[in-house]
Design goal:
α2 crosses α6 and α5 crosses α6. It contains six helices and no strands. By secondary structure, the chain is an all-alpha fold. It is 60% helix and 0% strand. The protein has two domains: 46 residues; 86 residues, Cytochrome Bc1 Complex, Chain D, domain 2, CATH 1.10.760. The mean pLDDT is 84. The structure holds heme C. Heme C (HEC) binds next to α2, α3, α5 and α6.
């Protein structure tokens, strides 16, 4: 027998469907908001040098030297204070290098160890070193 319009079961199903749609919409909005805020939190170029300095001193000075100057002309380590070296690198280059490391060069990949925001802070700090020494 076909279901008549207005039959109680059908009305209940429709109400449920509406509830589910609302719940999905709320979930999507929530996910979007979180996504947007996370993005702006770790946006390219949004790092601060002061915050980066602390992360650098904790993780990087062992190899890159106290002031990021490397270990002299004969070492393979870049001199972050040399504007000529750093001019050819975009912020994204520096960020990617920190994230992925050097693959066999001795430069570790920090992607899983240092969060995205702090990696941008490191970029800002490294930038500040060569700008200051122009
Ligand atoms: C175990 C030693 C070691 C540590 C620790 C280390 N690095 Fe490096 N890093 C290297 C070496 C070696 C190179 C040069 C070879 C290369 O570019 O892969 C390098 C290169 C780089 C470069 C590329 C510079 C260019 O020439 O463009 C960046 C940027 C960098 N390191 C940032 C960092 C930051 C930030 C940290 C701390 C979170 C860090 N490194 C910690 C060894 C290290």
């Amino acid at each position: 027998m076909p279901v008549r319009f207005g039959e109680p079961r059908l009305i209940k199903n429709r109400r449920n469907a509406k509830r589910i749609r609302t719940a999905v919409a709320v979930a999507v909005l929530f996910a979007l908001t979180v996504f947007i805020f996370r993005r702006s939190d770790a946006a390219e170029g949004a790092g601060t040098a002061e915050a980066g300095k602390a992360v650098f001193e904790k993780n990087c000075v062992g190899c890159h030297g106290k002031n990021g100057e490397g270990l002299g002309p004969k070492s393979k380590l870049p001199n972050f204070k040399n504007p000529a070296t750093m001019k050819s690198r975009s912020d994204k280059d520096v960020f990617d290098k920190i994230t992925n490391g050097g693959k066999g060069t001795g430069m570790p990949a920090w992607g899983s160890l240092i969060n995205e925001k702090d990696r941008w802070n490191l970029v800002a700090y490294i930038r500040s070193l060569s700008y200051r020494n122009k």
